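Input set for joint prediction.
Command: fold jointly, output tokens.
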Amino acid sequence: MHTSVLVAGASLAGLRAAEQLRAAGWTGPVTVIGAEPHMPYNRPPLSKEALAGKASFESLAFRPRASVADVHWRLGTPLTAADLDRRTVELADGARLSYDALVVATGTRPRRLRCPGPLAGRHTVRTVDDARALQRELTRPGAHVVVVGGGFIGCEVAATALALGAASVTVVDPLPLPMVGPLGPLLAGALLKRHERRGVRFALGAGVAGFEGDERVTGVALADGTVLAADVVVEAVGSVANTEWLDGNGLDLSDGVLTDGQLRVGGRAEVVAVGDVARFPNARYDDVPRRVEHWSMPADTARHAARVLAGQLSGTGAELEPFSPLPTFWSDQHDFRLQSFGAPSLGLGDVRVLDGDPDGDVLVGYHREERLVGVVGLGGAEVAARVARFRAELTQRVRPLRSSLS
Ligand SMILES: Cc1cc2nc3c(=O)[nH]c(=O)nc-3n(C[C@H](O)[C@H](O)[C@H](O)COP(=O)(O)OP(=O)(O)OC[C@H]3O[C@@H](n4cnc5c(N)ncnc54)[C@H](O)[C@@H]3O)c2cc1C
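tokens >
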């Protein structure tokens, strides 16, 4: 029997893992198993261009590289269990497969609000099917839309809903500012003003107590007693890692799959985790494991994990340098962009304007122990190039910060 690699999860991280295994020299069989019936596709446009109707949902499919033409895709059937000692997995259709190496790439799903009230009219945005269903509702003229959650996806969906002609869009969040957790008050305040100037309303400082309506949602009741009329509700309140299928293997699954500094899982040389589901220490900063839900991370984690596995499978692997990626993300909202390099959330205690003005285009630096750990730009499309100029400074040293300051 051939030595085989099984990739669990057929999205960006699963695809990149297959591609990077080939790039790392692994020529043996690779099978990718996915819960969704679709080949891997790009998620960021689901809250932006595709939701707005500016790009077709069909155009979001990734074009796999020629190197993965012989990879076997088993789609539409989730994994339900794994026995890491026996190196086997089970699928929802009853199939049991064995592997020599396993890549965990099962990503996340939206967290749901557990408040009383009807479900109809309430949406989340993670899959292409979610976005199609939401688009049908947002394109009905005159909808009153309430977005619960002022994070990245909530802010993006709010902007898109307004562009699609909603009569009103209100973002609800118990925190005092949108995106204040990852960005801090300086940029979050600037963001709030920009959204308000373009017509988005905010109900901040109070959480959701329940949903009104009999068969379908007609309103959102807040903890402070306010009731917001709503034809459509979007719940954008964070994510939950898809790890249940790994239960019973003694792993730390408290927030995603805990890995070591080489992305290995549970001390096993033949199991790695990649993408949104992986909780790994980044040697660039400290030894605290964290999940990083940015589009760039599937490629970065897959490149490193594939080298680890290819070395293990061929028996030639030397210990690699610890994984130390430079995180990066962008977010398009209305006619402006947020672009980030580094880890701003690690430097929230020391935030300085590097260039510009929060009321216009601005670059903000995040520092820890006097070291620049992240830069975020807010402005027009050209802000990405301006932030990228700090890349060299953000990558020049891999000097761990004190982990006690996480
Ligand atoms: C609406 C939206 C907008 C975004 N916008 C941005 C952006 O502007 N900028 C940015 O940097 N990032 C953005 N992101 C984040 C980025 O898309 C993610 O970081 C990326 O998709 C993570 O890829 P992944 O493969 O790790 O996980 P996922 O994309 O979650 O894929 C995991 C796959 O595994 C499958 N799966 C789950 N459980 C099982 C199982 N038991 N068996 C088999 N398969 C399973 C899932 O169905 C899914 O297909 C956005 C995400 C969303 C949802």
